[in-house]
Amino acid sequence: MSRFNFTFSMFFVVACAFFLCGCQGSDAQLAARVEFERGSGGYGGGGYAGESPKLYSQTAVSEREVEPEKLPEAESPEVNPARSERLVVYNAIVNVVVQNISQSIGQLRSSLSAMGGYMQQMTSSSITLKVPANRFTEALAEVEKLGEVTHKDIKGTDVTEQMRDLNIRLANAENVRGRLTKLLERADKVEDAIKIEKELERITETIELLKGKIAHLKNSVAFSTLTVHFNSPVPQKDIGIKIPFYWVHGLGTGLTEPVQKYRYAGSSSWQKGMFELPSGYVKYYEDKYGARAMSAEGVMIHAHNERNYKGGEVEFWATLVRRVLVGEKVFNIDKREELELKGKSTAVVLRGSKEIGLKQYGYLIALATSKKYVTIFEAWGPLEQFEEDRSKIEEAIKSMRVR
Predict the structure, then answer these.
(1) Is residue 293 domain-shared with residue 377, that is, in the same domain?
(2) Which strands, in side-by-side order, build the sheet including 118-122?
(3) Residue 51: CB partners within 8 Å, gap ≥ 6?
(4) 117 and 129 Cβ atoms separated by less than 8 Å
(5) Both 188 and 316 in a single domain?
(6) Which domain holds residue 289?
(7) What is the pLDDT of residues 180-198, one digit of tens each?
């Protein structure tokens, strides 16, 4: 075939593509326009050497910006836009008053999962679910069983024409791709093939985006959206028992907080110190209210006095401290013992551990009381080093001075 005949054939095929796409009304934007120009214009020589051929589409930019969402396939019959029934996307927003919001959310999620639905979004007081369209009415009935419905807003959006338009545009785009494929098979010049391949890449991208939009629309028709907002006259948050002793909440925080900068301070009335310093430890802070020390291996000691109250026996404080350490701070407190102090008073010792990151830390707290003060002795550090020093730490506890 001569170069002139080949060029003329390609021009004729593309012109036909223009004519067929133009017959589709609003879908002419997907027609391919391939320029076979050389130099300042004209057709001849069996190839085009002007600008690279471009696929002109009024919607190409916006379609590239939208990534099709991957959603589960509907179990309902496949949507066929050529059939006479209308395609409707249903959305419902329901407000309902219940006694227990968390329980109601769980119950609704379980019920609708049994219908073939799935959870799309959830907060502490609302849930959005996708339910099969053929069970939408049944899903609304399940919501009404939970409590008193105070508001209901159901909206249906007819997408029949939108689906038909997408399918026509897809058919046109596939038509153009078929013609470009045939042109590529007949191209006898490398530059011709490269330019046609670029147009094939553009039209293929458009086809995939259209398929994604059609799949998303089919899923929207097959699965209705149900959003339920819950309210309750009963407070849903556990207020809990407030502890008025601030220092109790501060126990154990030394394991997770960075070491603060302390300037050593001494007091003549505390020259003996609150406890005898274990060998291998350095006391880096002390005042009339407390003292801090540490070993070179990172085992820390913090002793301090806090005001006691009428009725504040050591058992009261030991029970309260254990509850806070376990319930609020998530410590594993597995040992309890009593130690006789040199001042003939008794200290209750709670011992356990805590995992931080991938590392285990040992922890110990001793409590002793007088009429005026509660004396607290905390020690913590990496579990292996802590266990090696535990006997020295216990000796330091026995030497505590309870005021």
Answers:
(1) yes
(2) 118-122, 126-132, 223-231, 88-97, 148-158
(3) 35, 37
(4) yes
(5) no
(6) 246-398
(7) 898 888 888 888 889 888 9
Q: What is the pLDDT of residue 31?
A: 37
Residue 306's CATH number: 3.40.1000.10
> Amino acid identity of 374?
V
What are the tens digits of pLDDT across the range 287-303? 878 899 999 999 999 99
- What's the rounded Cα separation, in Å, for the pair 57 and 63? 10
Local confidence band at 44 (pLDDT 50, 70, 90 cut-offs)? very low
| Residue in the structure block whose two tokens are 């806070």 | 324
Decide: 386 and 380 in contact? Cβ < 8 Å.
yes
Residues 6+ apart with CB under 8 A from 388: none
Does the residue 230 lie in any domain? no
Task: Provide the pLDDT confidence category of residue 392 given band limits of 50, 70 and 90.
Answer: very high
Give me the DSSP letters along 238-289.
---PPP--HHHHTTTGGGTSPPPP------GGGTT-SSPPPTTEEEEEE-SS
Asked whether residue 172 falls in the same domain as residue 48, the answer is: yes
Q: Residue range 197-216: average pLDDT?
A: 91
Instruction: Examine residue 103 and state whether it is found in any structural domain, yes or no.
Output: no
Task: Answer whether 51's CB lies under 8 Å from 39's CB.
Answer: no
Residue 60 lies in a domain: yes
Domain end marker among 176, 204, 232: 204
Q: What does the alpha-carbon distance between residue 55 and residue 53 come to, in Å, rounded to a whole number?
A: 7
Q: How many CA atoms lie within 13 A of 206 on its CB side?
A: 30
